[in-house]
Amino acid sequence: MVRCGAILYGVLAQEMGFRPTMELKSRVVHLGQYLKGSTVGYDCDGRLTADRRLACISIGYAAGYARIADDRGAVLIRGTLAPALGKTSMNGIVVDVTEIPDVQVGDEATLFGGEGRLRIGPPAVVEQFGTILPDLLADWGMRNRRVYR
């Protein structure tokens, strides 16, 4: 007997041809230029050390983006990693898009999964959220709208 759920969902044994069946995505809902010294994130907990262009992504702890991920991790936007900054709020996170000049409100942000060849996979999210992958997948699956393809 074996437990094959993770393989069926494609999060293990990808080298054997299994493809991931789940991604977690959201959207950029705000963009702005912020000066060195500006505070970032919930409770104004973070402080910028340089002028930055920041994006607000519409996902937070109410949708399973746990607060333990404060100031850790990244999202994929237009095929480039954008680091998360500051504390997670109930419905939003802030990411640094200074190095992605063509980002626009409405752009897709991938929190788990991939864009092209670049992926945020199981090892990255397990470290970012400090828990096991089944815990994340179950939480995200219950809290977010599903889109079937």
Automatic annotation (TrEMBL):
Matching SMART domains: Ala_racemase_C
GO biological process, one term: D-alanine biosynthetic process
InterPro entries xrefs: Ala_racemase, Ala_racemase/Decarboxylase_C, Ala_racemase_C
GO molecular function term, any single one: alanine racemase activity
Gene Ontology cellular component list: cytosol
Enzyme superclass (EC): isomerase
Residue ranges of the TM segments: none
Entries under Pfam families matching the protein: Ala_racemase_C (PF00842)
Enzyme Commission number(s) of this protein: 5.1.1.1
Requisite cofactors: pyridoxal 5'-phosphate
Domain Alanine racemase C-terminal, residue spans: 21-149
Coiled-coil intervals: none
Residues spanning the signal sequence: none
Catalytic activity: L-alanine = D-alanine
Annotated keywords: Isomerase, Pyridoxal phosphate
PANTHER family: ALANINE RACEMASE, ALANINE RACEMASE, CATABOLIC-RELATED
Protein's UniProt name: alanine racemase
Organism of this sequence: Sagittula salina
